[in-house]
Design brief:
four-stranded parallel beta sheet, 10% strand, elongated
Amino acid sequence: MTNHSTARVIRVVSFGYGHADAPEAEITLDLRRRFRNPHGDPTMRYRTGLDEDVFEDVLDTPGVRDLAAVTALAAHDLAHAVPDSITIACGCVGGRHRSVAVARHVADILADGCSRIEVEHRDVDRPLLDSTTHGITPPLSDVGRTCGFAAVSAEIDAERAAQDAKFGEQNWPDGTGGPVMRFEADRHRDACQHLAAHGGPDWRSILLEEVYEALAEDETARLRAELVQVAAVAAAWIEAIDRRPTDGAESL
């Protein structure tokens, strides 16, 4: 049995690059580019890698389990080659989903060895970063994972055609930005996070959070990115409605 009073210490730290610099570490994993980001899923965005279904979603991303296993092996060997404790740092954008899940899995693998494992989730309780900070672009491995707009694209195309037929091409000013809209965006984001911590948000709160994030933007590229998020959440809500049983009346 391991004597934890004399065992070598391996620290596993999760963090978010969007909050502060990476901590000093012997091994640092940058998880931002290659792995599926649960922030892009409205049902997971306001939760963390401490939740089991988010944890499993991250681990089911191709390559994550292999990376964790190789990292644990390297840390184990290094811990026996140097006299001091070592640190493994796992980082994603916000420090809430991928980094937390991978840090947990690395620590679980190392727990079977003869080192004392300490785990710290530095940014898991920090405020949720907005979608444009995440720069979400679904990885190729996500193609076909969800229907997205495919499920409702015909209806959307028909509605857009009807709008153009009735109003012609529309090129109105954006009218976004300013302190009032930023206040509202922060308020709706806080409300959504509060609901997520107390049983989970609803579609109304998720969509309003995205809408006000868009209305708070006065830079064109960021506004466009936020509007894509609005449209994606609206499509996800429609898909959820379409999955409901059709027998019997339901109050929406």
